[in-house]
Design brief:
About 45% of the residues lie in helices and about 15% in strands. By secondary structure, it is α/β, with parallel strands linked by helices. The protein has a domain at about 90-105 and about 230-465: Rossmann fold (3-Layer(aba) Sandwich). It starts with a strand and ends in a 5-residue tail after the last helix. Bound molecules: pyridoxal-5'-phosphate. Pyridoxal-5'-phosphate binds near residues 264 and 268.
């Protein structure tokens, strides 16, 4: 099975090449031609441990790799890196199940995919006969950069540069990044906001490609962004893990349907859930939970995508996003019509708006439900879940919990609901402490300690002691210096 661009079926690539390149040459996303091409026996993995499941699922989605190769990559990616051997445990919270995706090395759900991506990328490099060292460039608003660096840290044949907006990330996020270890990691603050850093990275990619600036240097650029299929595929696994856990605990019988509620930003996480459903997992509805930036809520209701609206900075910042890139893959796979997708993405670029045909909207409604929750609702949800069930959740998870309750009220015939929990509460300690009814004035590290003494829930190891750790990365540059910075770094063999 080859992958192809969502905008032009004649642009094809092996799954290994798709992982290596990230984006198709016409700006489309690499997608399988249709989910029917993925052959998979969903029942056969339910009895396996998580690494076994991952091996089977990733080989089905990325057939450039043999099962034996994949088994090794999975082992290298995950062994000993997460708090629990099953990687993503489930816990009961009231009538619902919470799927904890934040037990990885940086306490964010992006660890699940970004632990695996470097393994896939270096193996893909070998398969494609590429000798160049891979230099990953990432702009981050906080979480992705740290998770990507932890994933790529000291992986042979790779280096990574992370740009973050100077003064634009939380104190905890900044400390997580600037204390990053590894001989191949580099962190640099950019004077400007997140959009400046993100645009700067895109400009560096364009300048390097057009000017062939790195040719002959033995280095090529790549991205760890969630448009890469190598970042999406590993996320399918935990949907199967959750289902198997519910069967094992006797909460459902094998074959019963369950619903998932997913706090959504770029639409990667929830799309992985749709992949799981298409691969046979008995999923009823996928509930898309948004914060005040509710562009997806409106879209899934009406079929009209309109990004021309105010942008809100919320307490769930990883979902503050108005253009959800991975939606493009869903539209392609549901319609099977690359020309339509190309047209819609053109409209989005030109006008910021597109409207999908009615038959496609009907298909969306069969698989998805939608809702949103603003900051007041988020803090209320944190307090309610803590008081009623003794469970402390982060702001993103609280959005999903609130929307899951909306969903159940509106759909009395719902299936058992699994809520995806995407970050440790200690990554957003101020909003969480306020949510459980305390003032959160002062230094963010003090707030973290107060949250811990209040709840007695231990601070994850990677966050405890952050304040004392040595700062290794101190560079701060103007945004028009990013290209020079990258070229200079690319020319240095050793960074440390
Ligand atoms: C990235 C992120 C999300 C959103 O996931 P998408 O795949 O972009 O939809 C939700 N919660 C947290 C904590 C995140 O870091």
């Amino acid at each position: 099975m080859d992958y192809q661009s969502t905008r032009d079926p004649s642009l094809r690539a092996s799954s290994a090449r798709a992982v290596l390149d990230g984006l198709a040459p016409d700006g489309g996303l690499y997608s399988m031609p249709s989910m029917r091409e993925v052959s998979f026996d969903w029942k056969s993995v339910l009895g396996m441990d998580t690494q076994g499941m991952a091996t089977e699922i990733l080989t089905a989605l990325l057939p450039s790799f043999t099962k034996d190769e994949m088994r090794t990559l999975v082992k290298n990616a995950y062994t000993g890196k997460f708090e629990t051997e099953d990687l993503t445990p489930t816990v009961s919270v009231g009538d619902d199940t919470v799927l904890e995706l934040f037990r990885g090395p940086t306490s964010a759900f992006k660890d699940v995919a970004l632990s695996m991506l470097p393994q896939l990328m270096t193996a893909a490099r070998e398969k494609c006969g590429v000798d160049d060292e891979i230099l990953i460039l990432t702009a981050t608003s906080g979480d992705t950069g740290k998770a990507a660096m932890e994933g790529f840290c000291d992986v042979p044949g790779t280096k990574i540069i992370v740009f973050y907006p100077d003064g634009g990330v939380s104190a905890v996020q900044k400390a997580q990044m600037t204390t990053q270890s590894g001989r191949n990691t580099c962190v640099c603050a950019v004077r400007g906001n997140f959009d400046d850093a993100q645009t700067g990275v895109k400009n560096v990619f364009a300048a390097v490609t057009e000017g062939k600036l790195l040719d002959g240097m033995g280095v090529r650029l790549s991205s760890a962004n969630s448009i890469n299929i190598g970042r999406l595929a590993p996320q399918v696994v935990y949907y199967f893990r959750a289902y198997a856990n519910l069967v094992n605990e006797g909460k459902i019988k094998s074959g019963d349907k369950i619903d998932f509620c997913v706090p959504t930003g770029n639409f990667g996480d929830i799309l992985a859930g749709w992949f799981a459903k298409e691969m046979g997992l008995p999923v009823g509805k996928l509930v898309c939970a948004s914060n005040a930036n509710n562009v997806l809520t409106d879209f899934l209701k009406t079929g009209r995508y309109d990004k021309n609206r105010p942008f809100y900075k919320t307490v769930s910042p990883s979902m503050d996003i108005l253009v959800s890139s991975n939606l493009e893959r869903l539209l392609y796979l549901m319609s099977g019509d690359a020309a339509l997708v190309k047209h819609l993405m053109g409209e989005l670029k030109e006008t910021g708006v597109y409207q999908i045909p009615d038959d496609l909207l009907q298909k969306l409604h069969a698989d998805f439900w939608q809702g949103f929750c603003d900051d007041i609702g988020t803090k209320n949800a944190i307090g309610k879940v803590y008081r009623e069930y003794g469970y402390l959740c982060d702001t993103h998870t609280a959005v999903a919990w609130d929307v899951a309750q909306q969903y159940k009220t509106a759909n009395p015939d719902h299936n058992p609901v699994v809520i995806l929990s995407t970050a440790s509460p200690y990554k957003f300690p101020a909003a969480v402490l306020e949510g459980i009814g305390h003032s959160a004035q002062g230094d963010e590290f003090d707030v973290m300690e107060r949250l811990c003494s209040e709840t007695r829930i231990p601070v994850p190891k990677n966050l405890a002691g952050l304040r004392e750790r040595e700062v290794r990365h101190k560079d701060v540059i103007d945004r028009d210096k990013m290209l020079d910075y990258v070229l200079n770094k690319a020319s240095q063999k050793e960074w440390f």
